[in-house]
Structures are given as C-alpha cells and as structure tokens.
Amino acid sequence: MAQKNRLKYIILGLLNTNDQTGYDLTKSFSSDIGEFWDAKHSQIYPLLKKMEIDNLIIHKDIKVGQKLFKKQYSITKDGYNDFLNWLKEPSELTSNHDEFLLKLYFIRDKHSKIINTMINDQLFLHQKKLESLNLQLSQKFPNKKTANAQYGHFAVLKHAISREKDYINWLNLIIEDHLL
Amino acid sequence: MAQKNRLKYIILGLLNTNDQTGYDLTKSFSSDIGEFWDAKHSQIYPLLKKMEIDNLIIHKDIKVGQKLFKKQYSITKDGYNDFLNWLKEPSELTSNHDEFLLKLYFIRDKHSKIINTMINDQLFLHQKKLESLNLQLSQKFPNKKTANAQYGHFAVLKHAISREKDYINWLNLIIEDHLL
DNA sequence: TGTGACATGTAAGGCGTTACATGATTAA
DNA sequence: TTAATCATGTAACGCCTTACATGTCACA
C-alpha cells in the first residue's frame, strides 16, 4: 500500500549536497525546489525523525547562541544508496494539477464574460512568476562556470522559465482569439 | 481544516455538461481531464454519495440489460451554484509535481553519465504524449465550429500540446548542451 | 524592547492510492 | 464461452494541509 514518498528522496538529495537543519530544508521549498515540489515544516520534521530511525540520515546538535541547539542532519551511506536507486529509476510522467486550466476546461462559450478576467488574472500571475524566475537565474547563475557547477539546478530553472514563457504565450493567443 | 477538494468541482462541472454515472466520470480522468487532474473510482464513488447527501447532485436508477441498474447522476441547483462560485474564484498558481525535474535538479555534474538515459527516456515519453494529444485534437476538434462549441476544452488541449512541444524543445536543448 | 527570522515540534482531519471484492453485459 | 468492458462498492493506509504551540536569537 506504499505511496511514492518522494519527499524522502528530496530530503536525501538536499542533504547529499550539504548538511542542513529541518528549518533549512523547509526553506528550500519556498525557493528553488518549490518550483517542482512543496512541503511544510509539519511534514518535514516528523519525516526527519523517521528517516533517522531508518538509518538514512543522522543528526548532530549544534549550539546556536546561549541556549538553543539546532539539529544538523547529514546523509548516511544507506541514505545515499537509497537516493541513488531512486535517481536511477525511470520516471513516469506526472499529471500536472492546474486549477486555472481545470476551470477553463468547463467554460464552453468562447465569448463568456467570465473568461476575460480569468485569463488576465492568470496572465498577471505568470508574468510575475517569470520575472522572479529570471531574477533567480541572473542571481544564481551569473556565468557559465556557475551553471556548470550545478548543472541540474540550472537546467531545471531554464525549464521553468521556458514553461512560463510558453504559458504566457498561450494565454496571449487565447486573448487574441477571444477578440475575434 | 478544510482542504480544497477540487474533485468535487470537477464532478459538478462534468455533470453540468451532461448526466453521468460514476463509471462515466471515472473514464473522464483517463482521457480529457486526466491531462490536468486524476482520480480513481475508489475516490469518486464515495464522494458521489457524500455530494448527494449534501444536495449537490441527485441520481436516478437506470436499467441496463436484465438485472443491472446504473446510477445516473445529475447536478442540482445547489450544486450548480457551488460550481459557479468556484469558477468565479481567482485561481492561484499550483506548483507542478514533476519527478523527472526533481531528479535532474540533483544532478550537479553536467557530464554525468546518468543524465543521458534519463533525458532520452523522458524525451520518448513526452513525444508519445504529444502524439496522443495531437490525435485527440484532430479527433475532437476537426474544425472551427467544433472548437467554438467547447471552447474551454479546445483551449486547454491546445495548451497541453504547446506545453509538450516546449518540454520537448527544452529537452533537446539540454541534450545539445550536453554534447559540448 | 520589540519585531522578524530562526528553530522545532504535535494533532486533527481531509485527500488520494492501492488493494480487495463482486457481479452483469456485450460482442467475438 | 470467454474475455473485455461496464458498473459499483469498501478497507487500509500513507500523504499532506491547516492549525495549534513554544521558545530563542539577532538586530534595530
């Protein structure tokens, strides 16, 4: 009855890059990796505990300030093997959940009045997103060297940008078509 | 503690187009709407019962053959209002879950050997998908009239095609870049 | 001294998947 | 007569979200 539990592999992958706390991992989902997956701290902390019991990761207590200790996790050999096996597995296509498209699907009349605001709202959101992705690209990968050093991250960011451009382009086509 | 429960709205939307059984609804997810959402019959049947209790839909027993009765559901006034309210709500961006991109993200070395098979496998899947979407387009919307009659469905299908083309194009760019 | 970020947890409950289960109908 | 499709359900369980909860640290 097992579900995929991809979050486990994301955590392993992130810890494989460098040791981190649950808090650090949580932040990854609001920036980088949030483009393709999301998770809240309330899911991450319990999973970290479970993964440590399963011997995939271990933690050290690091002193911060006077009283506070943070738990810095690192990946174990077992964890690394688990991660590699996942990487090597073939990936199926995952169907995208897009609520806007879902709504649009149900609008049968081309000249429906609701369609205009819907599309413009969505256009705005995707333009904002594209801007923020472009900003990320220029900040994280100012030159070829930086891109080659973290090639996957670079490639995935380029994908996201391409995807947003395509989305915006398609939305504009719909708007044009709508005026006819 | 309410989650979104978008499946409810999909069912309402589908029933708003025409009366259907749980079986019919289930099939929608393996074709059309499966492009943007997925659901199994084991989720659909219980939800239909709940939605009928909530007065959003009602069913009639329709005789099929000698013994079998199927439940044909239709949308109620309450259900229609619920559906319309959902349509009118602004839609936020939903982050895409794409396992391949997730894996790619973690591959730091541009010349990693694993990258080649990964990309080619994925390229194959997206090409297959694009073919099937093109087939759907030509079958469901052979001309302008048919497209205008179900505009949303048409627009969404065009989107999916555009998305797959963009994905394939990006994959090819990565492959090219990889050879350098 | 107070605000925002850092840091870590638990609880309740809905959502979604996999598996188990059964039977009728249709067309080859 | 047999296989594919039609048709409808339940059970177990893991995933994920929302909400509740607490306390420290750095900086202005």
Structure commentary:
The structure is a homodimer of 180-residue chains. The first copy, chain A, has 180 residues and is mainly α. Helix content of chain A is 63%, strand content 9%. In chain A, strands 1-2 form a two-stranded antiparallel sheet. In chain A, a hairpin with a 3-residue loop joins strand 1 and strand 2. In chain A, helix 6 packs antiparallel against helix 8. The longest helix of chain A is centred in the C-terminal third of the chain and has 29 residues. Chain A is elongated and about 65 Å long. The relative contact order of chain A is 0.09. The model of chain A has no long low-confidence stretch (mean pLDDT 94). Chains A and B meet through helix 1, helix 4, helix 5, helix 6 and helix 8 of A and helix 1, helix 4, helix 5, helix 6 and helix 8 of B. The structure holds a DNA duplex (28 and 28 nucleotides).
